[in-house]
């Protein structure tokens, strides 16, 4: 055998890297959707926690918009009722802290649920990596799943919160709460609630997704089901 054998990559003027197949975004979306359906109950827990947190945020924001609209109307009777109920122009610090704490609790819950999802899918992740899946592909799957959960939870939560806030306002102030409703401010509050909910979903999945993406195939396959 010749001692001057040229390495494989030098003989062909190519790096010694195996061919890789990059799946299109549509296929990644289909795999993520199938995964969500197969773990429907666990995913519903995550979505429900997000709905509750976003509902509370939307309820506070839309409720404040209703109060601001009534206060800006200049009606002495409505202003007196608002002052008796403890209304403060610009919102109270107590409400802001309650909203922040509820969102933090929601984020912790999402992270915990996603960590459990990663643990349950060790062998699945290992199988995908053995078949040639890149770290970016695994990361994309988890981010797509979180995006779908976040979109659903944020939309439903903001809608429920706004409806409840309007109904409560009508019970307290009658139809004035509806006729004097500042539509522009309510729309911004809903967009803000949806954005926060979607952002929380992505934030909660980032750490578990990186763990899944960086996992070595041999370690994942070693885990017993």
TrEMBL record:
Main location class: membrane
Name this polypeptide is given: ABC3 transporter permease C-terminal domain-containing protein
Locations listed in the record: Cell membrane
Domain ABC3 transporter permease C-terminal: 98-216
Keyword Cytoplasm: no
Domain of life: Bacteria
TM stretches of this protein: 40-62, 97-119, 154-175, 190-213
GO CC list: plasma membrane
Pfam families with a match to the protein in the record: FtsX
Entry membrane topology: Multi-pass membrane protein
Recorded family membership: Belongs to the ABC-4 integral membrane protein family.
InterPro entries with a match to the protein in the record: ABC3_permease_C, Macrolide_Exporter_MacB
GO MF assignments: transmembrane transporter activity
Keyword Membrane: yes
Keywords carried by this UniProt record: Cell membrane, Membrane, Transmembrane, Transmembrane helix
């Amino acid at each position: 055998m010749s001692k001057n054998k040229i390495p494989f990559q030098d003989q062909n003027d190519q790096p010694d890297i195996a061919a890789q197949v990059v799946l299109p975004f549509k296929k990644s979306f289909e795999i993520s959707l199938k995964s969500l359906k197969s773990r429907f109950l666990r995913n519903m827990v995550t979505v429900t926690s997000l709905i509750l947190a976003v509902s509370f945020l939307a309820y506070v924001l839309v409720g404040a918009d209703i109060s601001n609209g009534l206060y800006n109307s200049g009606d002495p009777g409505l202003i007196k009722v608002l002052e008796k109920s403890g209304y403060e122009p610009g919102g109270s610090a107590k409400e802001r802290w309650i909203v922040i704490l509820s969102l933090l609790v929601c984020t912790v819950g999402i992270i915990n649920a996603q960590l459990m999802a990663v643990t349950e899918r060790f062998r699945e992740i290992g199988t995908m990596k053995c078949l040639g899946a890149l770290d970016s592909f695994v990361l994309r799957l988890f981010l797509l799943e979180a995006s779908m959960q976040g979109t659903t939870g944020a939309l439903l939560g903001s809608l429920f919160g706004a409806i409840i806030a309007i109904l409560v306002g009508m019970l307290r102030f009658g139809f004035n709460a509806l006729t004097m409703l500042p539509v522009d401010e309510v729309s911004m509050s809903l967009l803000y609630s949806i954005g926060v909910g979607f952002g929380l979903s992505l934030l909660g999945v980032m750490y578990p997704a990186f763990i899944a993406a960086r996992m070595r195939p041999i370690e994942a396959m070693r885990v017993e089901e």
